[in-house]
Each structure stands twice: as C-alpha cells, then as structure tokens.
Amino acid sequence: MNMVNADIASTPTRRITGRHLWLAALLGFAVIVPLLSSGYHVFQMTQIVVYAIAVLGLNLLTGYSGQISLGNGAFYALGAYTAVILMTHAGLPYWATPPIAGAVCFCAGFAFGRSVTRLEGLYLALATYALAIATPQILKLDAFEHWTGGNQGVVISKPTSPVPGLLNDDQWLYFFSLCVAIVLFVVAWNIVRGRTGRALVALRNHPIAAGAMGIHVAGYKSATFGVSAMYTGIAGALGALVAGFVGPDSFQILLSIQILVGGVVGGIASIFGTLFGAAFIELVPDVTKQVSEMSPSLQWLAELQYPAYGVLLIVTMLTMPGGIAGLVRSVELRIARHSTRTPQN
Question: Where do the domains of the chain lie?
Fold first, then answer.
C-alpha cells in the first residue's frame, strides 16, 4: 500500500501555466463573442480564422524550414477553385471540399517544392513570386473557362445552418471554420514539437550540417512545401465558402503579400502568433475605412487607408522585430524573472 502511495506521490502533475490560461481565454472569446455580434463582425472573425490558417501554412514553410515564399496566394486560389468546382460540377457537399482541396494543394506544393529544392533565399522567393503572378492569368484562359468561369468568376451559395434555431448561417460557417482551424493548429503544434520540427529548424539554421547529419534535405523541403500548400489550400476553400464567390482578380500578388505580412507581424516562427497576424491584415485596413466613414470631414482618411497600413506596419516592425508573439514571449520572460528573483537582505 505504501509503495502504491509512493508511486502516486512521485507521479508528475501538470501545472496550469499562464499560457494555458491565455489559451482558455482565447477559446472562450472565440466561442462566445460570435454569438453576441452582428453578421458583419461574425464575417470578419471568420475571415480572421481563414487567414490564420493561411498564415500558419506560410509560417511552417518560412519560419521553421527557412524557405521564403511569395506565392502562397497561388495555392490559396487553387484551394478555392477546387472547392468551387467540386461543389458546382461534382455536386459534393461544402464540408467535403476543404480536405480534398488540401490534398490537391499538397500534391501541387510537393511537386513545386521538389522542382525548386536547389533554390534558396531570394532565388526561391522570385520563383514563388512568378507562381503568384502567373496564377490569375492562367485562371482567365479560355481553355479553363468552363471550370473557372473566366474573367467573371463563379458565384456559389453559402452554406446554410443545419440548426437555424440555434445558429444562423454566418455563425454556423464561423464555427465550421473554427473547428477546421483547431484541428490544423493541433497538427501543426505536434509537427513542430516532434522530430520533424527539429529537422526543419536544423534545415533553417544550418542546411549543410543538417544534410551531413543524415537529414534528407530535398525530401524535407518538398514535404514542407506540400504541407504549407495544403494549409493554404484549405484556407482558400474556406475563404471561397465565406465569400460565396471566386474570381481571378481576387488572387492577385497582394494576397501573397498579405499572407507574408501576417506571418511577420504575428511572429514568423510562432504557431499561435498567426492569430495576431491574421487579425492585423483583416482589421487594420477596415478600421481606417470605418473611421473615414464616421464623418464627412474624415473622408480624406479613406485615401490614406493603405499608406496608414504601411506606416503602422513599419512602426510594428521597429518596435516589435520578433512580431507580436516575440513581444509576448519577452514579457513572459520578464515576468518569470521578476517572480523568481529572491529578495536580498
């Protein structure tokens, strides 16, 4: 009996840390606030969730494996059009399209990553930039007009709530996107904390040494490109459901830049920092627009929407070079040091 009690006493217990409390508060906010918000604000929160998935895909590629990409908007477009084509031509239900879009984008991303494994740094960034530039023009080709709708794009019906008395259509789509995001965040968290994550960090910091230690450099780079494209494609499929429309002009190079901005602002090597980055790229331009609409005397602010966005981005990078996640980590370290500091007599 004493031995059993000793074993129980020696069993390590999980402590509730500040990070767990923040996560619980974030989940509570994500569940409760949409139930009390207007349709427009629910739409904004859904867009933040979608952007967070896309930014997370870029963070896995750039933040952990060190591969710079300016073309993730192309995989976002591929995922969106895959979902729309499956719904309009194959008659698949909306909930089945994100995983299929993710699989298609994984194959496309893996193939592209395999073809550019010898490129690094700016050369890789230019190759992905070319991919983002070419994608909208390819979608406009007459050969694909039956599937893509050409210049006019394709309009789809938004999903309807299966529980209309409990959740309206916008709220249902939000919670559907949130559930998908939670699964993807858990998968990404396990990837970066395991052997794969350590291999990716080794590739990012010392690629030659990583190859000498037995890490298959080309294989890991290609697989990471595929996983990043899969995340971005799933985000594109959800984004198409949220917007109810896809068109080539919706996937210009600015989309890829926005995804990159979200990753840098949130913290390029942070999983949960993607939430801050997604909120930044969705809310900052909208706040400037809403302020300009408050009064006729403030209409001139509408013309400064993107200049103000750029200035705020510069200020953010100067004050928080590690992104918002880096600022949070530094605050946590200072609090921990202050709490463990013993008073001197």
Answer: 39-158+166-271
Dist. CA 229–CA 42, nearest whole Å: 26
What is the per-residue pLDDT for 292? 58
Question: CB under 8 Å to 114, separation ≥6 — which residues?
Answer: 218, 222, 225
Q: Cα separation of 45 and 327, whole Å?
A: 23
- Residue with tokens 């370290």, as numbered in its chain: 333
DSSP per-residue codes, 231-271: HHHHHHHHHHHHHSEE-GGGGSHHHHHHHHHHHHHH-TT-S
196, containing H or E segment: helix 195-205
Length of the chain: 345
Q: Which amino acid is at 213?
A: M
Partner residues linked to 233 by β-bridges: none
Cross-strand pairs, 155: 245
Residues facing residue 154 across a β-bridge: 246
- Cβ neighbours of residue 273 closer than 8 Å, sequence gap 6 or more: 59, 266, 267, 323, 324, 325, 326, 328
DSSP for residue 295: -
Using CA atoms, how far apart are residues 228 and 54, in angstroms rounded to an integer?
Answer: 8
Q: What are the phi and psi torsion angles at 92 (to 5°)? A: -75, 150
Q: What is the CA radius of gyration of the chain?
A: 22
Angle (nearest 5°) at CA 70 between 66 and 72: 95
The segments of the chain whose pLDDT lies below 70 read: 1-20, 288-306, 308, 341-345
Coil, strand, or helix at residue 155?
Answer: strand
At 1 the pLDDT is: 46
Q: What is the DSSP letter of 95?
A: G
